[in-house]
TrEMBL record:
GO terms for cellular component: bicellular tight junction; plasma membrane. It is a multi-pass membrane protein. This is Claudin. Residues 1-28 form the signal peptide. PANTHER family: CLAUDIN. It is found in: Cell junction, Tight junction; Cell membrane. One of its GO terms (molecular function) is structural molecule activity. It holds the Pfam family PMP22_Claudin. It comes from Pardalotus punctatus (spotted pardalote). The keyword Nucleotide-binding does not apply. The chain crosses the membrane at residues 118-140, 162-187. Belongs to the claudin family. It comes from the Eukaryota. The gene is Cldn16_1. Keywords: Cell junction, Cell membrane, Membrane, Signal, Tight junction, Transmembrane, Transmembrane helix.
């Protein structure tokens, strides 16, 4: 039972960590929500803004000026939280690999392996909370921005909604949280 639980938690942690990394690196945190005669698809990410021409599929991206430049708070906070979540999830994954029973590292001391699995669960839990806060922060900020424009009858030519990168960040964070629960509550 414990071996199956370990492998399940490892598989979920691996997939969720990949989701978090993809969410951090991809460009569609905000997408244009207007579908009226649009000839281009606009995406805004944490690192750049991209426009895809729907007729010929050509994609052009504009990098943000600098990582250290003045950016909106939602970008800076989300970047920080997502990078920290990525690092914690990666460290937890490495610790979990070494703590698995099927790995011969420290095979003669099962209590240390058990503590490594528990520690990986704690790291995954903290990383999942940071990733979820970052993703939800960004989504709520996009929603509030759009609601403010709609309530004031302001139309800027395009309205944005949260995109698949934001959903991927939420899914990765949730998966890390479930793996954390498996490792800390069910297994230890």
């Amino acid at each position: 039972m414990s071996a199956a639980l370990q492998v399940t938690a490892f598989g979920l942690a691996l997939l969720s960590t990949l989701f978090l990394l993809l969410a951090t690196c991809t460009d569609c945190w905000m997408v244009n929500a207007d579908d009226s005669l649009e000839v281009s698809h606009k995406c805004r990410g944490l690192w750049r803004e991209c426009v895809t021409n729907m007729q010929d599929g050509v994609r052009t991206c504009d990098q943000y000026d600098s990582i250290l430049a003045d950016h909106p708070v939602k970008i800076v906070v989300t970047r920080t939280l997502m990078i920290t979540a990525d690092l914690l999830a990666g460290l937890a994954l490495a610790t979990l690999v070494l703590g698995l029973d099927c790995i011969t590292f420290l095979k003669e001391d099962p209590s240390v392996k058990l503590k490594m699995c528990y520690g990986a669960g704690v790291l995954l839990g903290v990383g999942s909370i940071l990733g979820l806060v970052g993703s939800v922060w960004y989504a709520v900020d996009v929603y509030v921005e759009r609601a403010m424009l709609v309530s004031h009858n302001i139309f800027l030519g395009v309205h944005y909604d949260f995109g698949w990168s934001c959903w991927l960040g939420m899914a990765g964070s949730t998966g890390c949280f479930v793996a954390s629960v498996l490792l800390t509550c069910c297994f230890y």
